[in-house]
Design brief:
- With 478 residues, the protein is an alpha+beta fold.
- The chain has 16 helices and 16 strands.
- Helix 13 (419-432) crosses helix 15 (448-458).
- The N and C termini lie far apart (71 Å).
- Bound molecules: adenosine-5'-diphosphate and magnesium ion.
Length: 478
């Protein structure tokens, strides 16, 4: 039997406001437990939530960026449940009337084609606190610093058909929220995480099957692994005559498996109702147009522009626009370089990113600035050095030895372009290798590589390769 996989993601992006969604307490990460929870976050009776306007602006930006409708009127609702990290006994969220609906984005699917994934909705809500078990003897602690932190929950249509597509979709959302500057997307700190809903159905079946929901996946790798594990588990189960039950599961990364956590609650278990303490959010058309005007260039548009304006390969344009700082670095280098944009792209993608990864550094900590990389690439373009010597110069730049010009000067790496100097070396190589010369003349053309190699060795790689080739061919055929 052939199975089709159906996946929908619910992504939680923590919004990058300085204060909480309904209180003035700080959202800064990593403070001493319970030092950043005010009376509102602690759920004291009689206190009132006040909406942080910034979150509305951020949600509207997101909505416009994914071609969605930004609702003229949205409503906060109480989602009631008991948990020790939720002192109020309810979470304030949006339910029937979310702020963003009917969006979409495009990913590259497993066959390399562009694929549309629908975004059902994105709604604003507050995060809960955290229960702490580690380091406590036979007891648990509660840290309410995170309580009231603003979240945007982004819910996809069940349009995703594989774990890889799920990762591509999640990466795209991650890129968009960071481009917009509405979330730092820090997955280690839990600022960007997702719940994956997974089901399988026999190919050809039109209805969806029962799904399970894997909670709180906080890395792209875990998303892929957890979904793949869950797909196999469900297929095995059904093929053995069993039935998938709707439930919430946890991914255990250490054992690479998902485990049942609790049976899935239904919406009516939460007794949702509009929060009487908060007014509906009403947004005028003018407000939305203002937000639209302030939107930065988005990843897809930037990628297309990099292809059109710089003539880059599509895959390179995709990689260079995967984050705004990287795209900015590239554009700064291109503007400063006297070289082909594709060559600059090759240096950024290959050498620069390679060096950053090797040293475990982010772009912000790059040892070579965009202007300095441009300086290096320009020296290849104007024939001061060959591409091969440039690798050596790059390493020296990375080691902090100076700019390309300084290093070329200090190490005497300037390319030899004086043809009489090259001719002298060519004559010497020809004189020293009579055997190879005879073989070459007898038709063994491949030996040209040997002669080029010898000349390069004599000149420590500094002879201009084009000139070497030309002079060698001319002398060997005379
Ligand atoms: P809830 O709010 O109870 O988690 P929703 O109906 O809003 O449920 O759906 C949550 C997510 O589950 C959405 O991303 C949706 O696309 C996805 N989903 C719904 N049904 C299925 C299914 N049968 N298989 C896989 N994903 C599904
Ligand atoms: Mg859910």
């Amino acid at each position: 039997m052939s199975w089709e996989v159906v996946i929908g993601l619910e992504i939680h992006a923590q919004l990058a406001t300085r204060s909480k969604i309904f209180s003035g307490a700080s959202t800064a990460y990593g403070a001493e437990p319970n030092t950043q929870a005010c009376l509102v976050d602690l759920g004291y009776p009689g206190v009132l939530p006040v909406l942080n306007e910034e979150v509305v602006h951020m949600a509207a930006m997101f909505g416009l960026a994914v071609n969605a409708t930004v609702a003229p009127r949205s409503v906060f609702a109480r989602k009631n449940y008991f948990y020790p990290d939720l002192p109020k006994g309810y979470q304030i969220s949006q339910y029937e009337l979310p702020i963003v609906e009917h969006g979409e984005l495009f990913i590259t699917d497993d066959d390399g084609n562009e694929k549309r994934i629908g975004i059902t909705r994105a709604h604003l809500e507050e995060d809960a606190g955290k229960s702490i078990h580690e380091g406590l003897d036979r007891s648990s602690g509660i840290d309410l610093n995170r309580a009231g932190t603003p979240l945007l929950e982004i819910v996809s249509e069940p349009d995703i058909r594989s774990a890889k597509e799920a990762v591509a979709y999640m990466r795209k959302i991650h890129t968009i929220v960071r481009y917009l500057g509405i979330s730092d997307g820090n997955m280690q700190e839990g600022s960007f995480r997702c719940d994956a809903n997974v089901s399988v159905r026999p190919r050809g079946q039109t209805e969806f099957s029962t799904r399970t929901e894997i909670k709180n996946l906080n890395s792209f790798r875990f998303v892929e692994r957890a979904i793949n594990y869950e797909i196999e588990r469900q297929i095995d189960l059904v093929e053995d005559g069993g039935e998938v039950v709707q439930e919430t599961r946890l991914y255990d990364a250490a054992n690479d498996e998902t485990r049942s956590m609790r049976s899935k609650e239904e919406a009516n278990d939460y007794r949702y109702f509009p929060d009487p303490d908060l007014l509906p959010v009403e947004i005028g058309a003018e407000y939305i147009e203002n937000v639209r005007k302030q939107l930065p260039e988005l990843p897809d548009a930037k990628q297309r522009r990099f292809v059109d304006e710089y003539g880059l390969k599509n895959a390179d344009a995709a990689q260079l626009t995967s984050s705004r700082p990287l795209a900015d670095y590239y554009e700064e280098a291109v503007a400063a370089a006297d070289a082909k944009p594709q060559v600059v792209a090759n240096w950024v993608i290959g050498d620069l990113i390679g060096a950053l990864n090797k040293d475990g550094l982010g772009l912000a900590d790059s040892r070579i600035s965009a202007a300095d990389l441009a300086g290096l690439v320009s020296r290849i373009h104007d024939n001061t050095i060959s591409g091969k010597i440039a690798k050596q110069v790059f390493e020296a730049m990375w080691a902090g030895e100076g700019t390309a010009d300084e290093i070329i000067e200090a190490k005497g790496l300037k390319q030899i372009t004086d043809s009489s100097a090259i001719e002298a070396v060519v004559d010497k190589v020809i004189a020293e290798n009579p055997g190879q010369v005879a073989e070459f003349k007898a038709g063994k053309d491949k030996l040209i590589g040997f002669f080029v190699g010898q000349v390069m060795k004599e000149t420590k790689g500094q002879a201009n390769p084009g000139q070497v080739n030309q002079i060698l061919k001319q002398k060997l055929s005379s």
